[in-house]
């Protein structure tokens, strides 16, 4: 039994319990228990009808929990018989779950955890291990999130932007790590975004999927020996996954043809231009700057402005890049690193080395810190000191 | 028995070797240092002695309660004179001697010119004994 197939059934089974009258929080708990039981028993005794098995076991767990709760309160249990399923109900149920789990009232970390459990079908333990927190902490985070959204109607479409942000957060969490012992969050984010893209008709969902695929295609070339970070320009492009790139580009082109540009599509377009260049030197930086201009029109983000300045430095020379950087708030993360890069290209090695050392002190991860320290050492050596 | 091996940005005994900041090493020396650290951790994973390793940013502050209804008092960023923890490794080993041996090995990480940096590391036992056990 392939656990991915099992996980795919989870949202639909929550939906069935919901239509039988279970509230979301109890239905989700019951399905989680059934899922854990399935992971234990299916390898030795696979069911003929996996979904039917999950529904039956989850429903029993739900009734047991409800009866226990009712007897504590001295009340009778009344649950509706299952209304007949309408065609397409499972797809609608799954889509509603995406919106509910990424409800704007939830903190991002809670929305991520709930999405991975209810939509992704991961166990609490797997989520806890992926985020390096104790299982009890993750269990609490999920129940608190469910309490917070209790009573929210499941029939109203939510905010697509928050759903996409949650999926992108999951992807980025998996972007750095490549540990074989842990759940592959990047692959899971891609699976969930792919599923969402099949359920909706929104170009931005396709844009996010394309962006993830294009980044994922470079995954193996991003780290060197000992986990050392390899910057885009130095990556071995022959190791990029051309299948994923082709798929990402095709999805992006179909989305762009709809003529409803959004920031994920624009970011994916930039990633596609990088993926398309046979070597770093052949990168079409002029077009990349144009996409950054597009992106700035869509979101006035200082991070985009910073990245644009680096691209301008490539397209029009380091001095133009530094002029563009002068308009960016120095408090933006990675400002010193971008400035160091542009100063080195402009020939100001002393300043570049100091800036790289400053950037390494402000780094937010060990691989990034080590990379910037190495860059500082490399540029310092070029100064001949 | 679990031990914490603490690495400090500053504080602790006077340095045994006055080594230059890392950005004044050659890139190859920086790489050799990083590789040594990651090989060390990997070896402890293989011997079943590795528990955890984390690094801390240099920014931060001391914080304390300042009475009901008042915001906490902060003292920071850390002044130059204050002890500053850079990170730690937690190992689960047979004995104190083994913990000391490992910390000594970690402190031999190479620096400029490939010479060991002789960095002071702090080794502290966890209070994880079984309550009331005779040991």
From TrEMBL, chain A:
InterPro entries associated with the record: DUF6596, RNA_pol_sigma70_r2, RNA_pol_sigma70_r4_t2, RNA_pol_sigma_r2, RNA_pol_sigma_r3/r4-like, WH-like_DNA-bd_sf
Cleaved signal peptide residues: none
Biased composition (Basic and acidic residues): 367-378
Any one GO molecular function term: sigma factor activity
Similarity section: Belongs to the sigma-70 factor family. ECF subfamily.
Organism: Actinomycetospora cinnamomea
Domain RNA polymerase sigma-70 region, chain residue ranges per copy: 5-70
Domain of life: Bacteria
GO annotation, biological process: DNA-templated transcription initiation
Transcription regulation among keywords: yes
Descriptive protein name: RNA polymerase ECF family sigma subunit
Residue ranges annotated for the DUF6596 domain, each copy included: 160-255
Region annotation (Disordered) ranges: 360-385
PANTHER family: BLL6612 PROTEIN, BLL6612 PROTEIN-RELATED
Annotated RNA polymerase sigma factor 70 region 4 type domain residues: 98-149
UniProtKB/TrEMBL annotation, chain B:
Domain of life: Bacteria
Pfam family, one: YCII
InterPro entries referenced in this protein's UniProt entry, alphabetically: Dimeric_a/b-barrel, YCII
Protein name per its UniProtKB record: YCII-related domain-containing protein
Gene3D superfamilies in the record: Dimeric alpha+beta barrel (3.30.70.1060)
Domain YCII-related: 1-107
Family the UniProt entry places it in: Belongs to the YciI family.
């Amino acid at each position: 039994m392939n656990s991915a197939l099992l996980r795919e059934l989870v949202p639909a089974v929550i939906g069935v319990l919901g239509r039988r009258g279970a509230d979301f929080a109890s239905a989700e708990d019951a399905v989680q228990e059934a899922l854990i039981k399935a992971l234990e028993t299916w390898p030795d005794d696979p069911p003929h009808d996996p979904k039917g098995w999950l529904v039956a076991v989850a429903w029993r767990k739900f009734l047991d929990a409800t009866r226990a709760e009712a007897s504590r309160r001295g009340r009778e249990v009344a649950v509706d018989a299952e209304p007949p399923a309408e065609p397409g109900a499972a797809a609608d149920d799954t889509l509603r779950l995406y919106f509910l789990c990424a409800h704007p009232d939830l903190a991002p970390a809670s929305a991520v955890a709930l999405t991975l459990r209810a939509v992704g079908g991961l166990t609490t333990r797997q989520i806890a291990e992926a985020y390096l927190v104790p299982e009890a902490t993750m269990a609490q985070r999920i129940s608190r999130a469910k309490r917070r959204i209790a009573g929210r109607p499941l029939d109203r479409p939510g905010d697509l932007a928050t759903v996409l942000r949650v999926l992108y957060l999951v992807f980025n969490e998996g972007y750095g790590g490549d540990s074989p012992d842990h759940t592959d969050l990047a692959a899971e984010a891609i699976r969930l975004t792919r599923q969402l893209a099949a359920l909706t008709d929104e170009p931005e969902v396709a844009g996010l999927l394309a962006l993830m695929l294009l980044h994922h295609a470079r995954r193996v070339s991003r780290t060197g020996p000992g986990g050392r970070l390899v910057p885009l320009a130095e990556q071995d492009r022959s190791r990029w996954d051309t299948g994923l790139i082709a798929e990402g580009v095709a999805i992006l082109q179909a989305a762009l043809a709809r003529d409803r540009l959004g920031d994920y599509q624009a970011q994916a377009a930039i990633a596609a231009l990088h993926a398309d260049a046979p070597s770093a030197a052949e990168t079409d930086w002029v077009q990349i700057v144009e996409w950054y201009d597009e992106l700035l029109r869509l979101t006035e983000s200082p991070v985009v402005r910073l990245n644009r300045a680096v691209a301008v430095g490539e397209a029009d020379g380091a001095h133009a890049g530094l002029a563009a950087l002068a308009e960016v708030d120095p408090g933006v993360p990675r400002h010193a690193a971008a400035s160091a890069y542009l100063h080195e290209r402009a020939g100001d090695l002393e300043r570049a080395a100091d800036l790289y050392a400053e950037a390494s002190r402000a780094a937010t991860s060990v691989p990034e810190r080590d990379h910037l320290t190495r860059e500082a050492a490399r540029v310092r050596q070029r100064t001949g000191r | 028995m679990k031990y914490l091996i603490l690495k400090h940005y500053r504080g602790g005994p006077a340095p045994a070797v006055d080594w230059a900041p890392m950005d004044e090493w050659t890139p190859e020396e920086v790489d050799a240092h990083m590789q040594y650290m990651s090989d060390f951790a990997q070896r402890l994973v293989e011997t079943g002695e590795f528990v955890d390793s984390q690094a801390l940013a240099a920014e931060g502050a001391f914080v304390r309660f300042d009475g009901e209804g008042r915001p906490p008092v902060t003292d920071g960023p850390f002044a130059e004179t204050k002890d500053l923890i850079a990170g730690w490794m937690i190992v689960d080993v047979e004995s104190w001697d083994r913990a000391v041996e490992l910390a000594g090995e970690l402190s031999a990480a190479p620096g400029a010119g490939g010479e060991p940096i002789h960095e002071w590391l702090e080794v502290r036992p966890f209070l994880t004994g079984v309550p009331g056990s005779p040991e």
